[in-house]
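Predict structure. Chain length: 474.
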Amino acid sequence: MDELKKKILQDITGDEDIRLTPDQEEVLANFLTFYNSQEDRSGFLLTGSAGTGKTFMINIFTRFLQKMGFKVILLAPTGRAAKVISKRTHRAAYTIHHHIYSVSEGFYGDISFQRKPNKEKTKTAYIVDEASMVGDQTDGSTRRGLLMDLLDFVFDEDPYRKLILVGDPVQLPPIGHDTSPALNPEFLRFEGLLSVFHSELTEVKRQLVDSEVLENAVLIRDAFLEENQEGLELIQGRDVSSLENGWEGLESYMGYFEEGNPDRVVFITYSNFRAMKVNMAIRQNLLYEDAEQIISTSDLLMVVKNNYAWGDPKTLPFIANGEMCTVREVFHDTYEEKYGLKWIDAELEFQDTQQNAIRITCKIVLDLLQSKLPQLDKSMLSQVSHERNQEYLQLSKTQAAEMRRSDPYINALQVKYGYAITGHKSQGGQWENVIIGFEPDYGQNPKAYLRWTYTVFTRAEERVFVLDCPFVPS
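Prediction complete.
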């Protein structure tokens, strides 16, 4: 087996000197067993914390499978996560929703998803990164949860396709879950009916040990796993610093902010309420007089609900929850208050997975920008759909359906300011610099707070600044 592994590595990397850690060698051996398995509905589960080399192994799996004649499709739960893995692997990546669902609209403008038939050949492999974010609950837009629909899609009409799930079990689970079902071997076996081959990476790659961000992430991870939050003390230095007060947090953000580069810096908070407050303070410092406007040119926005009406069919087929964009122009003469909400048209600039700029002009809802609510209440959206449908009563069913599909109010983007976001909204993303605002929720559920801390710490590529952190010695 050692000679076979060495030959495989040389063939797929072209590097005779490449060295795997002991647990990476074990992962490769288990992966080869999985590959040679003839079992129906077989899946390979790779778990590991930050810095253990999950992306490195994804590249090895991909090259090996391609060499064996497989088509490899890379998926992620969100648009931001797809962009991150695409950047790291230099391969196209897609959201799970975009790849496995077709979208249909109900009479009142409500969106539902129908699982597509899978027409790919047997020699197709699906690699799902950030699988910790994939839940099994339904939100009413699908008959089953996302995880079950993914499994059904992959093995639709062909049980011999390959599925690889990759994720970090210490990351925050999907909302409504205590643990991530997509990273639970027993759940996958008994509920997902998979033959599961599971490997875990535990050893941090040597070339990353010098990172204080990663060093602290390992400390937080271990405290979480050992349920020893009282003994946790973060290490400060070049890459990790403690801020004295909120003003220092604002100054740090201002120092790193770069218009048009949403991956440069982010301020992460525990609650939507504090995110709203921080966003207002940052806008005041960035935009000065323009901050009086509820939305201004150069504002950084975050989409908070999937939208299938806008975008580019090839490069941005839909605008995903969590996507960041920059306001390039605001058409102030379109501002109106209607159906109990505030509306305006704007030109927004997004980036595709290859970091190319895509500009879209659309109508947006303004009410969430200065609200602590994460999304508009469904009753508000139903009221808008009802009012708009009244406009089309005199049309034929076909004409009315066409008008609803393109209706700017029904399809308006829901957005919040994107300077400060919550920990859950940050999942799947990576920023060069991360400022973390802790809140006094630590005593209520310390283990959950440690998991949140680990998740937001691992969003940083270079530096972390912590504010009011309970794990920094006073």
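Summary: The first helix runs from residue 2 to 13.
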